[in-house]
Amino acid sequence: MTILLVGLGAALGAILRYQLTRIGNHIASEFPLMTFLINLTGSFCLGWLTGSQLSQPVTLFLGVGVLGGYTTFSTLNSELSQLWFRRRYHIFFGYWLLTYGLGLLVAAAGFYAGL
Question: Where is Na(+) annotated to bind?
Answer without folding.
Answer: 68, 71
